[in-house]
Amino acid sequence: MEKRIAVISGDGIGPEIVKEARKVLDAVCKTYGHTFVYEDVLMGGCSIDACGEPLTEEAIAACKSADAVLMGSIGGNTSTSPWYQLPPEKRPEAGLLKLRKSLNLFANLRPAYLYKELAAACPLKEAVGEAGFDLLIMRELTGGLYFGERHTTVENGIRTAVDTLSYNEEEIRRIAIRGFDVARKRRKKVTSVDKANVLDSSRLWRTVVNEVAADYPDVTLEHMLVDNCAMQLVKDPAQFDVILTENMFGDILSDEASMITGSIGMLSSASLNDTSFGLYEPSHGSAPDISGQNIANPIATILSAAMMLRYSFDLGKEADAIEDAVRQVLTEGFRNGDIWSEGCQKVSCSEMGDLIAARIK
Ligand code: IPM
Ligand code: MG
After folding, report:
1. So what's the pLDDT on residue 120?
2. Whose alpha carbon is nearest atom 5 of ligand 1?
């Protein structure tokens, strides 16, 4: 099979972790006889430096013409980087939001799984870590507060800032369908998370999710308020299968979910539209404080590459091979610094890539 992959290495640790994911993809090509053709695309701070804006029309076109996009991370230190002196729509993150919107990537899948080998790195009570958990956050990605009308005004010397949280029923329906579809392939439970005790957008969310649920009698649906969900995630994460939620809640809950897997360096993600096209990136950021030191954890990006094989290229066996290789390396006791514990062998970013690539079979 031949596929074209647009590669956005981005900023901070982005180039280091993407390099390791490509190493693993090359091992897959060698073992399974595929060809992946890579095209480098600029986005984020590096694009601001080179082109004066975080995402150019050419970059969007390059992504659109590829079969999938593999991404590292974008952005810098928000207190010290000159990128954050620019107006908001010129900053690195604006590039990512524009790309998500331009490619209509409304469905963001963030699986959070606790490897039993990493139980010691889980910050929760020992019994919770030992019980393990395996959940998936289905986050709406092109609506809500992120894309609503916003402005800042000054009236009589008083500054006021406004952000708007708006959803229409079609936006809710299509992400709910994705949530139920994926639950059907898992443990058949959807927890829809909202703030329906306060927000109109959440009340509509709940109504539409109930309507969609009628077509999935085999899937159990429960509703949960987002503040309660934040609490339940640290109390009893094993209760969750699919968490279905809007953009902002999903952003916050997915960081929380990643931390209880041991490290944010373990959490992969896929952002999909209504075709097989997708953008694959780790859920973590660009970690500018550790960039260039070859100490970042590349596993989230490597697992995102596995999601790309599974969802965009329909290469399930090859995706399994990557996930098995990751598990094997963990079982053998190799760890990056963020997931290291007593008795394990600490390895660098590139060593982790080598170890995983060597175990692709
Ligand atoms: C994420 C990130 C982004 C988001 C930022 C970089 C705009 O935090 O993918 O979770 O908020 O969606
Ligand atoms: Mg986030």
Report:
1. 85
2. 93
pLDDT tens digits, one per residue of 296-329: 999 999 999 999 999 999 999 999 999 999 999 9
Q: Confidence class of residue 293 from pLDDT cuts 50, 70 and 90?
A: very high
Confidence at residue 267, expressed as pLDDT on a 0 to 100 scale: 93
Q: Is 264 in the pocket of ligand 1 (CB under 6 A)?
A: no
- pLDDT category, 144, cuts 50, 70, 90? very high
Distance in angstroms (rounded) separating the CA atoms of residues 325 and 318: 11
Cβ–Cβ < 8 Å for 243, 191:
yes
Q: 140 pairs with which residues across the strands?
A: 107
* Cα–ligand 2 centroid distance for 255 (angstroms): 6
96 lines ligand 1 (CB under 6 A): yes
The residue ranges of DSSP E strands in 281-349, in sequence order, are 334-335, 345-346
Residue type, 101: K
Tokens representing residue 350 in the block? 């590139």
Within 8 A by CB and 6+ apart from 218, the residues are: 184, 188
Domains of the chain: 1-106+269-361 (3.40.718.10), 123-260 (3.40.718.10)
Please report where in the chains the tokens 């062998």 appear, as a residue: 345
List, for residues 4-28, the tens digit of each pLDDT value: 999 999 999 999 999 999 999 999 9
- Nearest ligand 1 atom to alpha carbon 251: 10
Catalytic residue annotation: 146, 195, 227, 251, 255
